[in-house]
Design brief:
It holds the Pfam family Bac_DNA_binding. Keywords: DNA condensation, DNA-binding, Plasmid. This is DNA-binding protein. The chain is an alpha+beta fold and 149 residues long. Helices cover 56% and strands 18% of the residues. The strands form two sheets. It has a three-stranded antiparallel β-sheet. Strands 3-4 form a two-stranded antiparallel sheet.
Length: 149
């Protein structure tokens, strides 16, 4: 009997403390989310959202016949190789998807929001992504992509 009493007294205390914060966060997040999903759904043919790493690993496992553990290791290795190449300043071509490359940014003057203070933004590097023409065509792109197919 004591174990049941302990469980019932401990569980509500943990749930109430943990449940209060996520409910507030969920309420804040859920209000703007339908607007974002509706916009994303329209542009992607009704399949808005994000593919998480676990979903990507599951798809790789299904399509390759690997176990989920092996597929996870393969996805991790591929991501690590891509990140390492980008860090070294190399471009990474992903056939059918596009090309990731590093571009230099020039130093420039910016304006701090709220204070209108002018600030100097130093030169740096950023990652650029150029979508493959085949993917543009598959998404219903216009112009050169549609003409290429």
């Amino acid at each position: 009997m004591h174990s049941m009493t302990k469980k019932s007294t401990k569980a509500p205390a943990k749930k109430s403390a943990a449940a209060k914060a996520p409910q507030r966060e969920a309420a804040e997040v859920e209000q703007p989310a339908p607007v974002a999903e509706a916009g994303a759904g329209e542009s992607t043919g009704g399949r808005g959202g994000k593919v998480a790493k676990t979903q990507l690993v599951e798809q790789v496992a299904q399509q390759s016949g690997l176990t989920k553990k092996q597929a996870g290791q393969a996805v991790d290795a591929a991501m690590e190789a891509i990140v390492d190449a980008i860090k070294q300043g190399q471009s990474v071509g992903l056939p059918g998807l596009g090309t990731l490359s590093v571009k230099a940014t020039a130093a420039r003057t910016g304006v701090r929001p709220g204070t209108s203070e002018r600030i100097q933004i130093p030169a740096g590097r950023k990652v650029a992504f150029k979508v493959a023409n085949t993917l543009k065509g598959a998404l219903g792109g216009t112009g050169d992509a549609a003409a290429a197919q």
